[in-house]
Amino acid sequence: MITRFQVSGFKNLVDIDLRLGPFTCIAGENGVGKSNIFDAVQFISYLADYPINEAIGMIRGRESSYLKFTSISDIFQRFANKVNPEISISLEMIIPEEGEDDLGQIANATYNFLKYSLRIRLGKDAAGSDHIQIIEEELVPLKKKDASKHILFRHSAKWRNKIIRGKRNVPFISTSESDGESFINLHQDGGSSGKPRPFSTSNLPRTVLSTARYASETPTVLLARREMQNWKFLQLEPSALRRPDELEKFSARVKIQSDGSNLPSTVYRLSRVIEDFGDATSLYTMLANKLSDLIEDIVEIQVDKDEKRQLLTLQVKTKDGTIFPARSLSDGTLRFLALAVLDLDQNENGLICLEEPENGIHPERVPTMISMLRNIPVDPFDIEVESNPLRQVIVNTHSPGVVAEVPEESLVYVQSTEFVRDGDRFKGTTVRALSGTWRTEKGGTREISKGKLLAYLNPSNNTLRYEDKIRDYTPTKVRSRKDLRSILQNSLFDD
To answer: CB–CB of 369/338 below 8 Å?
Structure first.
């Protein structure tokens, strides 16, 4: 779980300081940089697995295939025909207490509330080609006694003390300099007694964190890596959601993939887990209930196990007893179903990112979608860890309809702001939040202008009568604040 994400120099992101809670909605107009924030988070996730150049190619490849063949400098900020040669990213996070290494051995974290920092610089190699050098990498513990100063969203102290475990006073990864040369040091979990392993930064192809593979050596760094690897960036594809799964590929660890594949296998796995303690049909009924706001006629979601064809196929049962393949459901309903399965799957931990959740959804169903997304993350007042996995959801949107349904404390607004550097003017993305929320009161996030937010939520439409405008834009959640409603009525609808 990420509690704070800071980035500067990545694409158009300038000194971004994003405080995160269990559920966060990043809103803003198209083109201001909402997706770039997701790209920066995903860049860190890729770096936990791949060399730097490959990670950059994967980020740019997600946008457009032709970008794979352009310069690696594309992720660096540009202004006035210049390139800012440095990117800095840091994040504060709570990692799992336990996990497995690449050989299936159990790893236990010495301490699990950490800050990871990375700085990279763009330069040239001996051949004159673009070259990226790591100039700083650190993984340090955040003091448990100061946790309340870092975890700013509303939560109970009992929950905080339950999820932050262990003790550590020295870094897990640090940066040092010797004889004019910089080194990234990988420390042992034993603390100061073990000698760190230094790696020269002059030609590091990948982060030191990405090299942690074995529980017996650096279990905490390994689990920090696992946390980043497990971040899920959903791009639910209708074709993947409709696809049956091959039975021979089923395993007890199968999960829904980012594109929605493995949906039948995941439901089948969950049904088998529940069957060990009772009736598997209870899971099928729970899934159907979650879809009841969309299709009232559905009474059960089930999986057909075809031994002959060796396939697992998702099916839907209606009130009259008719059973038909779930692939006949609409794209939007299938996305709902995938999110419902994510919600019920206790094996799903960590960060889940979803861009524009309103896509493919009828406007009347947006409230149901937001309600479902808000139900997925951890409840920071529930100390029952097993039934309350440490999950987090971040969505981005440019839809006023989505923003209107989001609790005000969960809203982050991004906008384009003009900067001046060395006499050059350029635009970059900055973060704002509503006044009176924990981000502005505790985290130092700058407030968004009330008029600007309302203008975004309620674009003027002079073809409507005043009474129609008030009726159509009845404030809910974000717009229910009294201080915003007065502006809504007095200024936005002046003809």
So the answer is: no
What's the number of CA atoms in the CB half-sphere (13 Å) around residue 119? Answer: 10
Query: How many domains, the chain?
Result: 3
> 140-192, pLDDT tens digit by residue?
999 999 999 999 999 999 999 999 999 999 999 999 998 889 999 999 887 55
The rounded mean pLDDT for the chain is 86
Amino acid at 421: R
Same domain, 245 and 219: no
**444 in a structural domain:** no
For 48, residues 6+ apart whose C-beta sits below 8 A from its C-beta are 207, 209, 210, 225, 228, 229
Q: Mark whether 418 and 471 lie in a shared domain.
A: no
Is the four-CA dihedral 157, 351, 479, 427 of positive or negative sign? positive
What domain range includes position 245?
A: 233-348
- Verify that 74 and 197 share a domain, yes or no: yes
- With a CB cutoff of 8 Å and minimum separation 6, the contacts of 124 are 130, 131
pLDDT for residue 424: 78
> Nearest to residue 355, comparing CAs of 391, 393, 405, 390?
393
State the pLDDT at residue 262. Answer: 95
Confidence of residue 75 (pLDDT cuts 50, 70, 90): very high
- Residue 495: pLDDT above 90? no
Q: Which tokens in the block code for residue 357?
A: 């959740």
As a whole-number percent, the residues of the chain with pLDDT over 90 amount to: 58
Question: How many residues are recorded in the chain?
Answer: 495
CA angle 232, 235, 240 (to 5 degrees): 110
**419 and 293 together in one domain:** no
Is 210 within the bounds of a domain?
yes
323-348 pLDDT per residue, tens: 989 888 888 889 999 999 999 898 89
pLDDT attached to residue 64: 45
Contact between 335 and 253 (Cβ < 8 Å) = no
Cα 227 to Cα 49, 72, 170, 221, 390: the distances in Å are 11, 26, 20, 10, 11
CA 431 to CA 433: how far, in whole Å?
A: 7
Q: DSSP letter string over 168-213?
A: --S-SEEEEEETTEEEEEE--TT-TTSPPEEEEGGG-SS-SGGG--
Residues 148 and 247 in one domain: no
Radius of gyration of the chain (CA): 24
